[in-house]
Amino acid sequence: MSITMIHDYLRLFISFSFVLCVLVMVHELGHYLVARWCGVHIDVFSIGFGPAIVKWHDRVGTEWRLCVVPVGGYVRPHGFEDPEDASEEQKASWIAGRTFHDKPIGARALVIFAGPFFNFILAFVIFALLSATVGKTQVSNKVMSVIQGSAAAHAGVKPGDVIQRLGQDRITTVNDLLDHLMGQAGVTTTLTVQREGHSIVLPITLGVASNAKGVVNLRHKGQIGVVFAVETLAPLPMLPAIVSGGQETWDTTKQALFGLWSILTGGHSVKDLGGPLKIAQLSGKAAQDGFASLLWLIAVLSVNLGLINLFPIPLLDGGRLVVYAIEAVRGKPMSKRLQEVSFSVGFVFLVGIFLFSIINDLASFGVFKRLFYEFS
């Protein structure tokens, strides 16, 4: 193995560990701070997993750990387990009025919700910071290149054209165009572009997207067939940067939800799902491009982590919030048996998704093709 490859793998490992540690630590910090605010004692705040390299206690008795596996971390609230599940030794160690399970439903729900909420806060802060320092990088509605044989090519779109309207809908950003293309597959309309200072109206029949199985669906998003230019805007003053940070967080959230919906409805293949190996690859690439690129990746992943944790899946924060909502409606907790079954189903589902994402990643890297050719 060459020195260059060792350097690349080391950069990938360090950047991946840094990205995951930041994401998970901020998530757990949300649980920690709101739990303390609600009067819940925190037994352990661990940075990483496995045996502790260093550990110490703060003035309120929380044990802080720095562990050997620098990926992620966790927070353990005092008395998080239900009284019926706790041993006599655990019950004897509980501090009256400081246990998690003694708090009202609203307080418990707030502690659980704080983790995903802090992921959105992290994304907002990073987006605003980048807008105020290096400037916001965005995809413009200026055409950089036209894909051969596409709807745009047949319509006469040229590199350098700036798309202004799709039919009667005004286009100011690429997101505007993507929104207006929804449900327009195969539609004949017009595309207004600015070329050399003049507005030109071009008749165009939008392309038709096919789903993962190659099935055409006219309800899907129309396709134009161009590659847009990427531009970096000048840094913004603080107040506009804050507004920009909020807008970019919202846009990233919408894009993530739309991507998931598109996969569920067959508009995109499940092969588009990325797992930990893909995140590691992206982290290494972002680190190579510079610290600002790495921060941008953290912001995007933080939004996705916050969303995923809010899904109503047992074992995730969203699943726990559903349990608390049911408890609030019924006036008493869900039966222990139902909770155990739901958590077991949630565990199997999450493990399945994790394994599937890893297989997806390996397939996208061409690992299975290489193995097939090697043993065939």
Q: Please compute the radius of gyration using only Cα atoms.
A: 25 Å
Q: Mean pLDDT, rounded to whole units? A: 81
Largest sheet: 4 strands, antiparallel
Q: Shape, please? A: elongated
User: Regions with pLDDT < 50 over 5+ consecutive residues?
Assistant: 211-219
Range of helix content:
40-55%
What would your notes on this structure say?
This protein has 376 residues and is α+β, with helices and mostly antiparallel strands. Among the domains are: 3-38 and 103-134 and 279-375, no CATH class; 137-232, PDZ domain (Pdz3 Domain). Helix content is 52%, strand content 20%. The protein has helices at residues 3-37, 88-93, 105-133, 151-155, 174-181, 238-264, 276-289, 291-310, 317-330, 336-364, 367-375, and strands spanning 42-57, 63-77, 137-146, 162-166, 169-170, 188-195, 198-205, 207-208, 222-223, 226-232. Strand 6 (188-195) and strand 7 form a beta hairpin. It starts with a helix and ends with a helix.
How is the topology of this model organized?
Elements: H1 3-37, E1 42-57, E2 63-77, H2 88-93, H3 105-133, E3 137-146, H4 151-155, E4 162-166, E5 169-170, H5 174-181, E6 188-195, E7 198-205, E8 207-208, E9 222-223, E10 226-232, H6 238-264, H7 276-289, H8 291-310, H9 317-330, H10 336-364, H11 367-375
Antiparallel strand pairs: 1-2, 3-10, 4-5, 4-6, 6-7, 8-9
Helix pairs in contact: 1-3, 1-7, 1-8, 3-6, 3-8, 3-9, 6-8, 7-8
Short summary of the structure?
52% of the residues lie in helices and 20% in strands.
